[in-house]
């Protein structure tokens, strides 16, 4: 009877946790697929580094998700009924930190680079300082994640040995949280600073802030959940509830930020069901103090600046948009 209870508990903590983790990972992958469709059908004229990042993230996602399915197949088909499998370390999971860091670090660098562009004209030292901080955190995160994964792949044979790698895992995930929070908070603070007083512009800034929070919150919660599970139950599969989905959440962060330009380029009027021309705003070229000054003279801001200088890398595709017109804010 005692053996049955132990086996049942082991099944719940390992097989149950793995299946739920992989199923949720597959669910997020489905959402990501729709994000890919939206991105490619929107025909954004992004620069080659962004396109390279997009294809890299897609390739990593497809391979990692396929690996997770093969992992479940191993448990439920190939080695079904072999309870020794529950206590063995498997390369499919031990390689997960590689997939997480090679997705997380480029995404973090892309996001903090937007902050550097928006803040760089008026505060270049601060902008470069934030960028340098996230770069250092990204390098540390990458090194720790790769070290963690290769150490597991080379030395670990059973789940009982996972406990000795808890300090490295905690250090790696803590640095990841620090990088994510730095990216999010610096981006939101920059957007708050760039408020102009114009309803249209501030609406766009507010939506960008919402995107930043909505993207950062799931990633942070899953990272905290992963750390907590690794510390409390390193020899079971409980930490796999969170680990399989972490890379997908970073990918979702990237594509949500890229695809948010669809909404921003249509302007606030389209959200209320009214038609109108696309209204363009270039945050990099705005004179914040000039726009917000309270002088009695009328102030005009005409946005005819090329959009590739905007931190979002071209909100609209002017070359393919026959209705595009410069907009004057009075």
UniProtKB/TrEMBL annotation:
UniProt entry tagged with the keyword Cell membrane: no
PANTHER family in the record: CHROMOSOME 1, WHOLE GENOME SHOTGUN SEQUENCE, DUF6534 DOMAIN-CONTAINING PROTEIN
Record InterPro entries: DUF6534
Species for this entry: Gymnopus androsaceus JB14
The keyword Transmembrane belongs to this UniProt entry's keyword annotation: yes
Transmembrane segments: 20-41, 53-75, 95-113, 125-146, 166-193, 205-231
Domain DUF6534: 176-262
Keyword terms: Membrane, Transmembrane, Transmembrane helix
Name of the protein this chain belongs to: DUF6534 domain-containing protein
């Amino acid at each position: 009877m005692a053996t049955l209870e132990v086996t049942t508990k082991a099944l719940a903590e390992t097989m149950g946790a793995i299946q739920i983790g992989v199923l949720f990972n597959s669910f997020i992958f489905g959402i990501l697929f729709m994000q890919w469709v939206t991105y490619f059908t929107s025909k954004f004229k992004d620069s080659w580094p962004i396109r390279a990042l997009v294809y890299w993230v897609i390739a990593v996602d497809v391979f990692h998700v396929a690996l997770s399915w093969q992992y479940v197949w191993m448990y439920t088909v190939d080695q079904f009924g072999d309870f020794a499998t529950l206590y063995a370390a498997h390369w499919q999971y031990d390689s997960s930190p590689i997939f997480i860091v090679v997705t997380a670090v480029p995404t973090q660098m892309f996001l903090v680079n937007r902050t550097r562009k928006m803040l760089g004209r008026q505060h270049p030292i601060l902008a470069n300082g934030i960028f340098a901080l996230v770069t250092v955190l990204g390098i540390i995160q990458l090194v720790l994640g790769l070290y963690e994964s290769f150490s597991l792949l080379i030395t670990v044979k059973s789940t009982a040995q996972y406990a000795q790698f808890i300090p490295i895992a905690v250090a790696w995930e803590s640095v990841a949280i620090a990088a994510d929070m730095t990216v999010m908070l610096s981006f939101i603070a920059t957007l708050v600073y760039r408020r102009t007083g114009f309803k249209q512009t501030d609406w766009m800034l507010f939506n960008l802030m919402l995107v930043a929070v909505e993207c950062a919150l799931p990633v942070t919660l899953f990272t905290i959940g992963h750390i907590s599970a690794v510390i409390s139950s390193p020899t079971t599969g409980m930490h796999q509830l969170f680990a399989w989905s972490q890379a997908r959440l970073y990918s979702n962060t990237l594509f949500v930020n890229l695809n948010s330009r669809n909404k921003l380029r249509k302007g606030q009027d389209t959200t209320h069901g009214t038609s109108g021309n696309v209204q363009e705003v270039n945050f990099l070229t705005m004179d914040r103090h000039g726009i917000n000054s309270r002088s009695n003279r009328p102030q005009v801001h005409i946005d005819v600046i090329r959009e590739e200088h905007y931190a979002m890398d071209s909100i609209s595709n002017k070359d393919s948009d026959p209705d595009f017109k410069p907009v004057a804010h009075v």
